[in-house]
Each structure stands twice: as C-alpha cells, then as structure tokens.
Design a protein that fits this description.
19% strand, alpha+beta, three-stranded antiparallel beta sheet, 3 strands
Length: 72
C-alpha cells in the first residue's frame, strides 16, 4: 500500500543545501544539495522512520500552511 506524505523544503542559509521535513512524521527530515537527491533521501528516511513506528501509534494529519505577515 502506498501513502503520500507532505514535505516542507527550506534552504539552509549557511550551507545552501535543501532541507526537507516530513510534516506527518515528527522528527523525520533530511538534506541534500539539490531536489533530485533530496527526493531520494526523503524516500529513504520515510521508509526508515516507518520501520520504527509502532502500528497503534496515530500519526498526525497534514492540514495546510499559510503565510502570516507581521510588522518587524
């Protein structure tokens, strides 16, 4: 059975590498120098993460994102 996960991608300002975090899997993240490599790394880290989760543990559901503007 296949399942989709939401990945938030940010660029690290110091290394300029991309950092991907899986929203539904707390603590599940990886990094890479480009998107193709990040996608491979994300797939690997999701597989490894899911092997450690107990079947009865509920995982959070992704709801959405929004940008909030505030005065600095």
């Amino acid at each position: 059975m296949k399942k989709s996960y939401t990945v938030v991608v940010e660029r690290d300002p110091e290394s300029t590498w991309l950092v991907g975090e899986v929203v539904e899997l707390p603590g599940c993240y990886t990094q890479a120098p480009n998107l193709p490599k990040l996608e491979l790394n994300i797939q690997e880290v999701i597989s490894a993460y899911l092997k450690t989760v107990l079947p009865e543990e509920p995982l959070p559901d992704f709801v959405g994102t929004w940008r909030v503007e505030v005065s600095a």
